[in-house]
Design goal:
The structure holds two protein chains of two kinds. By secondary structure, chain A is an alpha/beta fold. Chain A has a domain of 139 residues: Rossmann fold (3-Layer(aba) Sandwich). Helix content of chain A is 25%, strand content 30%. Chain A contains five helices and eight strands, in the order βαβαβαβααββββ. An eight-stranded mixed beta sheet of chain A has the order 3-2-4-5-1-6-7-8, with helices on both faces. Chain A is globular, with a radius of gyration of 16 Å. Chain B is built from eleven helices and 20 strands. The longest helix of chain B is centred in the middle third of the chain and has 21 residues. Chain B is an alpha+beta fold. The interface between A and B is large, with 64 and 53 residues. Strand 3 of chain A pairs antiparallel with strand 14 of chain B, so a sheet runs across the interface.
């Protein structure tokens, strides 16, 4: 039995917000969905940080070339243990790259960032792809994290977290941070938790 | 048994006895020697020495003359000193400090070497000073000291020197590596139009070259192709001599970057290096197999472009997006930044319109002015962090050079 990848908080959270809901199961697909500025990327950074800090290697497949290495490094991602694949808004390239990486094996986390990707391209992804990938990561220590605006993997994901905006913290003439809400949609029964991210 | 030759041209003389010669310094060569060769040396020193070389040599009291390197001049070379012993270090000590030919039978090293002064050992001023204070002048006196006492007072180095003085320090021979070139070439009647026959040919080259590398315990660090006189390099991410892996890598590289013209003259050279040694551990986290990973990355590079597969790194600069920052709030870039239309009141943005968003600004922080790199592609801008009515957080900036507003990305 593979243990879950524990995800730490990005900022000191209140004790009632312990992140039991956010542990990502290994050998399964974890899906993180939400609109823009809902904390999807912060959560993805925390998954990458948890994995790379354990000494594992991670891959980020960045469909829209949107990755910011500065905030990722600040969140604890060890950049030297991460491969960044930029796909130039080409969803087909992103899916093909993810397929190659998953079948190569040996990574702690494979993060597929499909957030902000063209809806028409996302609609063309066959459902069988997710089933194949679910099989590919089974019995491996890999966490396949899919980040998107809406759920894509349907029944193939073991953990589906819906991210929501809670509030932005402006103090004076300064954006100090943001608070997000994690609402686990799958498995059913997990409690909602909050994610705090500091901007300064 | 080992033989040591000390003098000018020691290497050439040593190589006449054995192909595996270790050079201690420019004048001292050591090699393994057989019983029969020892008997020959003992029987007829001068003629044996002459057998392997055309140089003139002095051997002990015997002078032998001959042609020097085919030049025709008859010269008298400097003296050679030769020693045979059961250990390399004893042979070296004897050859450096005894005239002529010295043959140390096993067990009599300490007796013969004992007459040498302590200075014959490799220099170590601190230990020499201590030995001098103790009144130790010769190797026999050093050899007679109790080992425990030497270890306590002089440490491992002192113990090492005592073993050397006894002629008991044993180690394997480290022969000079043979210089080999790893190259194969062919000139065809007709140029190869297709990739497959070219790979077939390169595969044959690789098979031979990797077998030669294997025989020398070496691996390939890089491959240098020469097609019709034009060079092309393939640098490997790690040393390897796996033919299949190399061939796959070459295939991916040639598919991603096809040759400019069909090759008729093909040359492949391998740059050799030490092979990769990996120590596995039970507690090391799993990592991708290097061969598999490189092939995978090769396929991805061919798909998305070489420049789009990388390991991110931060740079020592204040340039936005490159610098080291403490902000943990994740940011997503629009690359390139999207042109935006911003309505301002008193210099403060109030309404934002861009391709991906539109709305009234409800909260805003800024402006934060930054500029730099005036000597190259400089930046000069005023940044604002803002929240739209729907709650989305963006960063916009006014480019002071282009006099325009841009949407850089959003906080997420």
């Amino acid at each position: 039995m593979l243990s879950a990848l524990p995800i730490g908080w990005l900022d000191s959270p209140p004790p009632e917000y312990l992140p039991a809901a956010a542990d990502c199961p290994r050998g399964r697909i974890t899906e993180i969905v939400g609109p823009r500025s809902s904390g999807r990327t912060s959560f993805m950074h925390s998954i990458l940080a948890a994995s790379t800090q354990l000494g594992e290697f991670a891959v980020l497949i960045d469909t829209n070339n949107s990755f910011d290495s500065c905030s990722a490094a600040a969140a604890g991602v060890e950049l030297s243990k991460m491969i960044w694949i930029r796909c130039g808004a080409n969803v087909e390239h992103a899916m093909r790259s993810a397929d190659l990486v998953l079948h190569s094996g040996g990574f702690g986390v494979v993060a597929l960032d499909l957030a902000e990707a063209a809806e028409s391209a996302l609609n063309r992804i066959p459902q069988t792809t997710w089933f194949r990938w679910r099989r590919a990561v089974q019995a491996t220590p890999t966490v396949l994290a899919v980040i998107a605006n809406r759920p894509l993997t349907k029944s193939c994901s073991a953990l589906l977290i819906e991210m929501r905006r809670r509030r932005a913290v402006f103090t004076g003439n300064l954006l100090r941070g943001a608070e997000y809400e994690l609402a686990p949609r799958k498995p059913i029964g997990k409690e909602r938790t909050a994610l705090h991210c500091a901007a300064v | 048994m080992y033989a040591c030759i000390h003098g000018d041209g020691a290497r050439a003389l040593g190589e006449s006895f054995s192909p595996f010669v270790e050079m201690i310094d420019a004048q001292t060569a050591v090699f393994s020697i057989t019983e029969r060769q020892i008997k020959e040396i003992a029987r007829d020193r001068a003629s044996l020495l002459k057998k392997g070389t055309d140089r003139s040599v002095h051997c002990g009291d015997t002078l032998v003359e001959g042609d020097c390197g085919g030049s025709g001049d008859r010269v008298v070379s400097p003296l050679f000193r030769i020693a045979v012993a059961a250990t390399i270090e004893a042979a070296v000590l004897a050859a450096r400090h005894f005239e002529g030919v010295t043959i140390l039978q096993p067990g009599e090293e300490d007796r013969v070497l004992g007459s040498l002064p302590v200075d014959a050992l490799p220099p170590d001023p601190e230990i020499f000073e201590t030995l001098d204070l103790w009144g130790i002048r010769s190797l026999s006196e050093l050899a007679r000291l109790p080992e425990n006492g030497v270890a306590e007072r002089l440490g491992p180095r002192g113990l090492w020197m005592q073993k050397l003085a006894r002629g008991a320090l044993d180690r394997p021979l480290k022969p000079v590596a043979l210089e080999t070139t790893y190259e194969e070439e062919i000139e065809l009647d007709d140029p190869l139009e297709m990739l497959e026959p070219l790979l077939l040919l390169i595969g044959r080259f690789l098979h031979d070259l990797c077998a030669r590398l294997d025989a020398q315990s070496l691996a390939a660090a890089a491959l240098r192709f020469t097609f019709n006189g034009a060079e092309r390099w393939l640098r490997l991410p790690f040393p390897t001599r796996d033919t299949k892996f190399l061939l796959k890598l070459i295939q991916h590289d040639f598919e991603a970057h096809p040759l400019s013209e069909p090759p008729a003259k093909i040359k492949l050279a391998i740059v050799p290096t030490e092979p990769r040694r990996v120590q596995h551990s039970l507690f090391t986290p799993s990592a991708p197999e290097p061969e598999k990973l490189e092939l995978t990355l090769g396929k991805i590079r061919a798909l998305v472009g070489k420049e789009n597969v990388k390991i991110p790194e931060l740079r020592n600069t204040y340039r936005p997006g490159w610098s080291i920052s403490d902000a943990r709030l994740a940011f997503r870039y629009f690359r390139p930044a999207l042109p935006a239309r911003v309505e301002t009141e008193g210099g403060v943005p109030k309404h934002l319109t861009a391709r991906v968003c539109r709305g009234n600004i409800v909260k805003i922080a800024g402006p934060w002015r930054s500029s730099g790199d005036w000597w190259t592609a400089d930046w000069n801008r005023d940044e604002w962090d803002l929240s739209l009515a729907d709650g989305a957080l963006y960063r916009i900036y006014f480019d002071r050079k282009a006099s325009g507003w841009f949407l850089e990305g959003n906080y997420d």
